[in-house]
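Design job #97: recover the sequence.
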């Protein structure tokens, strides 16, 4: 694949599409913020400190070669390692909506950014 193609590995299969390094950095920043929210929920639950404060969901949208959307509610996952994101990739002729493991998405974005420089 081209250096400007991001490949996301799904539970079964993968999807690849044109994506700029700038957009990948924006997505990484959104996911980093999501990870902090997930950690806050997990820490509050693990400490037995009562019900954690509800955290707002993560919603990321990108429009380029394809429309890309990530959604994750940090309040329903016991830890960042268990979390999944709802992923939608679509263009004029196809739409793919599926879940992806958050940790795998993070690995894929980091790998893309390393290759993109």
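Job complete. Output follows.
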């Amino acid at each position: 694949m081209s250096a400007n193609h991001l490949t996301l590995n799904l539970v079964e299969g993968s999807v690849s599409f044109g994506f700029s390094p700038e957009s990948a950095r924006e997505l990484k920043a959104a996911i980093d913020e999501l990870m902090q929210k997930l950690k806050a929920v997990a820490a509050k639950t693990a400490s037995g400190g009562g019900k954690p404060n509800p955290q707002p969901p993560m919603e990321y949208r990108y429009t380029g070669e394809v429309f890309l959307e990530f959604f994750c509610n940090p309040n329903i996952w016991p830890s960042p390692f268990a979390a999944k994101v709802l992923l939608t990739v679509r263009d004029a002729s196809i739409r793919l909506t599926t879940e992806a493991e958050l940790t795998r998405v993070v690995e894929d974005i980091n790998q893309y950014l390393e290759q993109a420089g």
